[in-house]
Task: structure prediction
Amino acid sequence: MAEPVPLPADLIELKSLEYRPVRVRGHFDHSKELYMMPRTIVDPAREAREAGRLSSSVQSGAHVITPFHCTDLGVTILVNRGFVPRKKVNPDTRQKGQIEGDVELVGIVRLAETRKPFVPENNPERNHWHYRDLEAMAKFTGTDPIFIDADFKSTVPGGPVGGQTRVTLRNEHMQYIVTWYGLCAATSYLWAKKFLRGTRGM
Result:
């Protein structure tokens, strides 16, 4: 992983930093937690052990998204603190993990995502979020539309398990197909226009 850089306050600069680690310092506001669910824990070691199995022991739960006031920048961002099992979604069941005071942590920059087919709509009234709609999340919590996934080292006893970033590469195959077929069609048309017209005149 690349060395973490300070979190930029410029949203335009931030758009070029997806999946880059950044360092922030500040404090959490646990009173405004959001829950992205359902989610399963990212555990590379377990996933490697269970690769190829028809069944697995994965438990369902949620990612805990908490407003974080950055002391140096004077902005409040959203931090995905990590995974909790379903029985620990209620913060009253994990008071030991509710960090108080200023802390420094490293997180991975994440941008907004569009809702995929078959993914339910977000339900702010129930505080159930199924995909990252940063504008809606920021409006709901009164934060800036900046989102990072806290790394695994941020994990504290009794709290969410950090390091829950799943890297999803953008699938642009359809765009390539449309582009190349368009170029092919245009070339064929120009070729026909030039050479077939000349043939008819002979």
User: Anything to note?
Assistant: The first helix runs from residue 11 to 14. The beta strands are 5-6, 21-28, 34-40, 60-70, 75-85, 103-110, 128-129, 147-150. DSSP finds four helices and eight strands in the chain.
